[in-house]
Amino acid sequence: MQDYTLYIENARIIDGSGAPEFNGWVYLEDGLIKAVGRDGNDDSKSYKSIAEKIIDAEGAVLAPGFIDVHSHSDVSLLAAPDSIGKISQGVTTEITGNCGLSVFPVTDLNRDHLNELYASYGVSLDWNTYAEYKEIVSQLNPVCNIVSLCGYNTLRAAVGGYEKQDIGTNGINQMKDILYESLRCGVAGVSTGLLYVPGKFASTEEIASVLSIAGEFDGIYTTHLRSEGERLVESVNEAVDIARKAGIRRLHISHLKTAGAANWHKIDEVMKMISQARASGLQVTADRYPYIESMTSLSVILPAPYDDMDDVTIMSRLASREEREVLRELLKSTYQVERWRTIRLVATRLPDYSDKLGCIIEDIAKDKNCNPVDVVCDLITRDSVNVMAAFAGMNAENLSTIIGNDYTACGTDESSRPANYSIGRSHPRGFGSFPEFFKLLKNHMPLEQIIQRVTSFSAAVFNLQGRGMIAPGYAADLVIFEPENFKANATFAEPHRIASGVHKVFVNGQLRYNFGRVIR
User: Fold this and answer.
1) Can you tell me the distance from the alpha carbon of 500 to that of 487, in angstroms, rounded to the nearest whole number?
2) Can you say whether the dihedral through the CA atoms of 279, 216, 72, 166 is positive or negative?
3) CB of 33 within 8 A of CB of 425?
4) Beta strand ranges found along 307-370 (DSSP E)
């Protein structure tokens, strides 16, 4: 892609600092912002005269590119580097490797599992280290900047596999050595996914010991809490405890929520705990997608003993008819019929469910003239690795409370996917989180503060030097958009409909998105 000097004029500039907007211009050179000025500034003519290309913003807002602090694009960006789902929302940087799941380090103990997990993307995980993965990403040149976290679950599996076991002193030391090398090569920190195998088998002491290496690098610790429902308060306390024991300065809680009506009342206690931790000097932040239906693997609903198995093992175990009957009876005895009204099928590779995507499990069962448990068993038996579901159970008022906190950033919790469903199907948040985030906050704070939240604030949380502001010397990550027309169009029925209102997006000074079209 050719480099050129660029002058953007007639813009309502909101620079990411929280300061009031002003009418002005920006001059870009070598992927950086070289000059910023107000209309009428004498420098404007000289910079405009030397620019090789001039763009008229036509009175739209010019802001720093938005930062998706919770992304799962680790492999999807290799399969579809255009990332239209993200860049069409104004996203220019994605933080990947969340929820304990990164695509490095890879060893003989986790390679087959990871390849099975990502089989639908058509990408083989042939690398071993972060440095090797980073080089592959660089060669593909995806449209968005990528910043990686090391996933604790992947790291643990690289050393000890996915079995329930004490990793031992030797395993902890191996994990530390691998993590040290990853951090030395530029990884931003460590994420845990303590709901998932094998992270759920790790003790507080084990995690803190391994994370002490991240503390030495001033890396961030992000966590999908061990529980977001029944044991939410205890899980927040554990996260704070781990950070302190590990010498971590920055703790970030992923997709902070109160899951399940029985836990909605815990919001006040959780907010108080976070405030107390912040007052004590721990830099606690959070992210949230602006929806009240979550999405993850359907298998998370499985009771014991399946709750301690990864999806590959579950499918292998359920190859037996007897085992399938055991699972069916367990589900019938564990859940009331009302449960199947709160789960929505989002994605599966099974063709006989292709017309049921976006539908509630109970409704699918009615269409198929069977019991909802039979639908769940069928999906998990034949496609546990790929079947994704959305789960109702969050509270709209609590969502507003969480997003309203000045320490909460926006995250999609999604992969960057193409619009054509060729590598799977997203939750609507993959294409609509940022306009929905703006929508929820617009009646509570000025636009300048909302933009600050998704730009300079998010950059500071993840220590992204030179990004998140419109100022000389910063990376030229920019979005031209109309806030009044910034609207999410994605639904569960049509989750890949791109957002409205974004005109142009620049990444490192290159025009990458132009009125609905990605430019490579």
Assistant:
1) 5
2) negative
3) no
4) 343-347
Strands 408-410 and 478-481, sheet pairing: unpaired
Q: Which residue has the tokens 């910023």?
A: 36
- The answer to whether residue 2 scores a pLDDT higher than 90 is no
Find all residues with CB under 8 Å of 147, minimum gap 6, and list them: 93, 94, 95, 96, 188, 462, 464
Classify residue 449 as exposed, middle or buried by CB count within 10 Å of its CB (0-12, 13-18, 19+). middle
Output the average pLDDT for the chain: 96
Q: How far is CA 270 from CA 174, 294, 419, 455, in A?
A: 34, 19, 37, 25
Q: Check: CB of residue 144 under 8 Å from CB of residue 94.
A: yes
CA-wise closest residue to 186 among 244, 245, 129: 129
Give the whole-angstrom CA distance, residue 272 versus residue 367. 46
Among residues 150, 126, 111, 116, the alpha carbon closest in space to that of 78 is found at 126
307's CB contacts (< 8 A; 6+ apart) are: 300
Question: Both ends of the chain: CA-CA distance in Å?
Answer: 7
Distance between alpha carbon 30 and the CA centroid of its chain, in Å? 29
Model pTM score: 0.94
- How confident is the model over 59-91, as pLDDT tens digits? 999 999 999 999 999 999 999 999 999 999 999
Taking each helix axis as running N to C, give the angle between helix 204-216 and helix 232-246, from 0 to 180 degrees, rounded to the nearest 10: 40
pLDDT band at residue 160 under the 50/70/90 scheme: very high
| Six token digits for residue 55 | 């763009």
Q: Quick one: pLDDT at residue 41?
A: 78
Side-chain half-sphere CA neighbours of 194 within 13 A: 24
What are the tokens at 472? 């000389």
* Residues 294-305 as b or e (16 or more Cβ within 10 Å = b): bbbbbbebbeee
Q: Rounded CA gap, 29 and 6, in Å?
A: 7
Strand runs (DSSP E) across 233-357, as ranges? 250-253, 283-288, 293-297, 343-347
Residue pLDDT, tens place only, 435-473: 999 999 999 999 999 999 999 999 999 999 999 999 999
